[in-house]
Each structure stands twice: as structure tokens, then as C-alpha cells.
Design goal:
With 142 residues, this protein is mainly alpha-helical. The protein has helices spanning 3-111, 134-141, and strands spanning 125-127, 130-132. 82% of the residues lie in helices and 4% in strands. A hairpin with a 2-residue loop joins strand 1 (125-127) and strand 2. It is rod-shaped and about 150 Å long.
């Protein structure tokens, strides 16, 4: 065998090893792509119903928010109506009621009758540095 034949055999063996290595890499890459395709298909199968449910939930929430908005505007209208009614009642009856109350107070003062009762002071006994209420004093004496 000559030097050129040995070199040719070495190159052929190198290319055979390289082609084998590339074949193994391509087979592994094909398996990875196959697994990835299956995973994407499974995710798609699960995501479509989830997105449909999410869409239904968003529509329901929007309906509920529209209802809450309508209720809030009704409450605001009722509040403004109650405020206007309160102002009307206060202006219509507030002045005359104050005048009637003042007149009644003036009549009572003029007649000398007052509703104020004199305040009754409670009497307490001090025994050994402490105060005993009247109800307990009766129990102690009896």
C-alpha cells in the first residue's frame, strides 16, 4: 500500500464517521421536532377551549359591569332627588318650626315654668378611704 492509498482510506473512514455522526444528529433532530409538534398540538387542543371559556367569562363580566353602571347611575339620580327634597322640606318647614319652638320657649319663660328639674345630689359615705354607694350602705347597716 502506498502512502496515497492509506491517505485515501483514512479520508474515506473520516467521511464515513462524519456521515454516521451527521445521520445520528439528524435522527435525534427529527425525534425532537416530532415531540415538539406533538406538544404544540396538545397545547393547541387545550388552549382553544380555555380561550372560549375566557371569552365567555369576559362577556359575562361586561354584562355585569353594564348592570352595575346602570344601578350606580340610578342611585346617583335617587341621591340627587333626595337632596333636592331635603332642601325643599328644610326651606319650607325649617323656618316656621324654629319660630314655633322659639315662641313656645318664650311663653314658658314668661309664665315662669321650666322643664328643668333640679339636679339631685347623691350623698355618699366615706369609709376607710373609699366611697360606698347608698344601696350598699343599706345592706351594711341591715
Amino acid at each position: 500500500m502506498s502512502g496515497g492509498e492509506v491517505a485515501g482510506i483514512l479520508v474515506a473512514v473520516f467521511w464515513a464517521i462524519l456521515v454516521s455522526f451527521l445521520a445520528v444528529v439528524l435522527v435525534r433532530l427529527a425525534q425532537v421536532l416530532k415531540a415538539t409538534t406533538k406538544l404544540v398540538a396538545d397545547v393547541t387542543d387545550q388552549a382553544v377551549p380555555l380561550l372560549a371559556d375566557a371569552s365567555t367569562t369576559v362577556r359575562s363580566a361586561r354584562t355585569q359591569l353594564d348592570r352595575v353602571d346602570a344601578i350606580a347611575s340610578d342611585v346617583q339620580e335617587v341621591t340627587s332627588n333626595a337632596s333636592a327634597l331635603s332642601s325643599t322640606v328644610a326651606s319650607a318647614f325649617g323656618g316656621p318650626l324654629v319660630k314655633v319652638a322659639a315662641f313656645g320657649y318664650g311663653v314658658r319663660k314668661a309664665l315662669g315654668k321650666t322643664d328643668e328639674a333640679p339636679q339631685k345630689t347623691t350623698r355618699r359615705n366615706v369609709i376607710v378611704g373609699r366611697t360606698v354607694p347608698a344601696a350598699r350602705r343599706r345592706k351594711q347597716k341591715g
